[in-house]
């Protein structure tokens, strides 16, 4: 499994490098301190999984994730940041990241688990962020709709398609958008809904009276 790291904090990079090099099935193929060096590096060799910090000296992680997701869709991106804000997690996932981890709470085992999950194409969300989202929808019957997670119009359309049991490609065709865009919206919906799978999203759609 080919891994790359984009982070400008040497202590973090050293720790991640040590974690990765202990696994004989993982290969560290790139360490990048800026967005510019990252984009140049992946032109030469693509990683399977990219560990991406949100704050780099020249670009933010969301901008880089959008570019890489569009031009190199095979690269799975795991955001690793120090900011425990649900809105930031949503931004990163909407930009194409498959996971979101916090530097403060991510130990070696958690990082390896997250890498495996995103490598398989699954979503991995730091537990503290997941709990923040879950708190906003827990006991929904006692909440007013205005207090529930806000969805964009496009997210609402995608959620309606999911509720209608349409595939990602069918939703994309119906809305005249790319399949990748649908996947990004689905990822964002899962985070906002606190859902782990499609069943959870359908339950969320029912709570919003979409079905």
Fold blueprint:
Blueprint: E1 2-6, H1 10-21, E2 27-32, H2 35-44, E3 49-52, H3 61-71, E4 76-81, H4 86-94, E5 99-102, H5 108-119, E6 124-125, H6 127-137, H7 153-163, H8 168-175, H9 179-193, H10 198-207
Parallel strand pairs: 1-2, 1-3, 3-4, 4-5, 5-6
Structure description:
The chain has helices spanning 10-21, 35-44, 61-71, 86-94, 108-119, 127-137, 153-163, 168-175, 179-193, 198-207, and strands spanning 2-6, 27-32, 49-52, 76-81, 99-102, 124-125. The chain is of the alpha/beta class and 211 residues long. The chain has a six-stranded parallel sheet with strand order 2-1-3-4-5-6, with helices on both faces. Helix 3 runs parallel beside helix 4 (86-94), helix 4 packs antiparallel against helix 9 and helix 7 packs across helix 8. The radius of gyration is 17 Å and the shape is globular. Residues 136-147 have low confidence and may be disordered.
């Amino acid at each position: 499994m080919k891994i790359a790291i984009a982070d400008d904090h040497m202590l973090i990079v050293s720790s991640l490098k040590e974690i990765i090099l202990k696994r004989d099935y993982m290969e560290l193929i790139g360490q990048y301190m800026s967005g510019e060096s990252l984009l140049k590096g992946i032109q030469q060799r693509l990683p399977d999984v990219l560990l991406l910090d949100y704050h780099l000296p020249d670009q933010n992680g969301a901008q880089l994730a959008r570019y890489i997701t569009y031009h190199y869709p095979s690269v799975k991106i795991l955001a690793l940041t120090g900011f425990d804000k649900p809105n930031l997690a949503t931004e990163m996932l909407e930009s194409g990241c498959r996971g979101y981890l916090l530097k403060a709470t991510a130990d070696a085992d958690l990082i390896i688990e997250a890498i495996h999950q995103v490598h398989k194409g699954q979503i991995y969300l730091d537990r503290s962020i997941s709990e923040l989202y879950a708190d906003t929808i827990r006991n929904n019957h006692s909440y007013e709709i205005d207090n529930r997670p806000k969805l964009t119009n496009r997210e609402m359309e995608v959620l309606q398609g999911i509720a209608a049991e349409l595939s990602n490609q069918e939703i994309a065709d119906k809305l005249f958008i790319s399949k990748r865009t649908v996947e990004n919206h689905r990822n964002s919906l899962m985070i906002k809904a606190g859902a782990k799978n499609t069943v959870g999203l359908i339950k969320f759609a029912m709570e919003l009276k979409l079905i």
